[in-house]
Amino acid sequence: MNPDPPGSLHFDMSHSIPILLTLAVIMSSNQGCSQPEKPAKDETTPAVASGAWFDSVQWENRLLVFSGEDENTTRQKALALDSQAGHLERNLLVIHLEEDSATVVVGETSVLPESELFRQRFAMPDDAFEVVLVGKDGGVKERRKTVFETQELFGIIDAMPMRMREMRH
Predict the structure, then answer these.
(1) Whole-angstrom Cα distance, residue 108 to residue 13?
(2) How far is it, in rounded angstroms, from Cα 118 to Cα 97?
(3) By C-alpha distance, which of 148, 149, 164, 163 is closest to 66?
(4) With left for phi above 0 and alpha for psi between -120 and 50, is residue 24 left, alpha or beta?
(5) Residue 41 pLDDT class (50, 70, 90 cuts)
(6) CATH superfamily, region 60-168
(7) In the structure, what pLDDT confidence band is assigned to residue 40 with cuts at 50, 70 and 90?
(8) Residue 147 pLDDT
(9) Tens digit of each residue's pLDDT (9 = 90 or more) over 79-134
(10) What are the tens digits of pLDDT across the range 57-72?
(11) 65, β-bridge pairs
(12) Taking phi first (over 0 means left), then psi (-120 to 50 degrees means alpha), and beta for anything else, what does residue 36 get?
């Protein structure tokens, strides 16, 4: 074999794997570091504005997001409030989108993104009632222009493979 000519760069890939493994260990050790306290409910943070909130609830919560200001909205809120225990058992956050803000109807979460971010992410109208069921994977599972009745909602969720695993454990 010919040695590399003077002045040329030579990369030995056999050293890359140990370096990458070392970096992975260093980065994973930082996960246990203390996190800053969560902001108060009325504060807006860059993380929320950038959509990081959606990443924070993915794999932790399902979402039932609805928009509009009519009798369907009133009924969807009432159904959610009447069956809070079932929603919480299914890790289901219920969120109402108002004109400029989003409100948690059932469940607990940190600062919510503005309603416009929900509308953009889930392609929801700002001038009509619509309800969207979002799975823990972040994907839209069901979209409706009518109220989601509780037993039907729970039936759809309970038939999801991830929920079936949760119920077995």
Answers:
(1) 48
(2) 8
(3) 148
(4) alpha
(5) very low
(6) Glutaredoxin (3.40.30.10)
(7) very low
(8) 98
(9) 999 999 999 999 999 999 998 899 999 999 878 999 999 999 999 998 899 999 99
(10) 999 999 999 999 999 9
(11) 95, 132
(12) beta
Residue 37's alpha-carbon distances to 26, 34, 40, 93, 110, in angstroms, are 23, 9, 9, 22, 11
Give the residues across from 102 on adjacent strands.
97
Task: For tokens 């970096």, name the residue.
Answer: 23
Determine how many CB atoms are found less than 10 A away from the CB of residue 10.
7
Torsion of CA 71, 77, 82, 87, to 10 degrees: 140
- Residue 137, number of CB atoms within 10 A of its CB: 11
Q: Which two tokens stand for residue 4?
A: 């590399």
Place of tokens 């889930």: 122
Q: Is 138 helix (H, G, I), strand (E, B) or coil?
A: coil
Rama region for 107: left / alpha / beta (φ>0; ψ in -120 to 50; rest): left
How big is the chain by its Cα radius of gyration, in Å?
A: 23
- Residue 154 to residue 147: CA distance in whole angstroms: 13
CA angle 58, 93, 132 (to 5 degrees): 85
What is the pTM assigned to this prediction?
A: 0.70
Query: For the chain, what's the residue count?
Result: 169
Structure tokens given for 27: 């980065």
